[in-house]
Amino acid sequence: MTRTATAMDRVATCVVGMLAVALGVAAILWNLDAIKDFPARIEIPWAEDLVDHSWWPWAVGAGGVLLVLLALRWLIAHVPLRRVKEITVPGSNSHNSITADLGAVAEGASASLEDFDEVSRVRGKALLDRGVRTIDLRVTLRRSVVSGSETLSELISRVTDTGDQVESMVGDPSAATRTHIAVESAKRDEPRTL
């Protein structure tokens, strides 16, 4: 997730959590008659009419299932990816083992891509994605690259070459390289042109 998405996610979680706590405390206080201004019964006529319909239990059940699925999706999206540090390089035997630090390889690949003028930022990390050791590179291009298709194709070729170099450095075909290419967002004061 991006930093903005992470920040918004945390703010939304904080707001929902505080609302849930406030509603829970209000319900407890209401049940204990701790606050005298609370009415003993809340009447909502249209809500009472809904309960009498035959479709109401099905709608409530479907809504509950949908909320459970959304909650599970949210939880799964926040499971941290497991990081992988080292990989055993082919050529190791029972007497000695040769390992490669995948984190350092990811940093080296990031540094090699940052040398290009078209690249604004590169982040690289080594992780375990669905059981596969993966070097994940996130390349952010300058907006000027989008206008020149030749420059973009050249850069994609360079990114592919970097992936090949990572594979040859690690020497293990089971390790994967994944590259995300994005274009930096426009500044607010710049007009958007298509």
Give the helices and strands, then pairings.
Layout (H helix, E strand, L loop, with lengths): L2 H29 L13 H7 L4 H22 L4 E2 L2 E3 L10 E3 H13 L4 E11 L2 E10 L2 H4 L1 H22 L5 E8 L11
Parallel strand pairs: 5-6
Antiparallel strand pairs: 1-4, 2-3, 4-5
Helix pairs in contact: 4-6
Mean pLDDT: 77
Structural class by sheet pairing and helices: alpha+beta
Low-confidence stretches: 188-194
**How many extended strands?**
6
Q: Order the strands across the largest sheet as they lie in space.
A: 1-4-5-6
**Topology as H/E string?**
HHHEEEHEEHHE
Report what the structure shows.
With 194 residues, this protein is of the alpha+beta class. The protein is 50% helix and 19% strand. It is built from six helices and six strands, in the order H-H-H-E-E-E-H-E-E-H-H-E. The chain has helices at residues 3-31, 45-51, 56-77, 102-114, 144-147, 149-170, and strands at 82-83, 86-88, 99-101, 119-129, 132-141, 176-183. The strands form two sheets. Strands 1-4-5-6 form a four-stranded mixed beta sheet. 12% of the residues are buried. Residues 188-194 have low confidence and may be disordered.
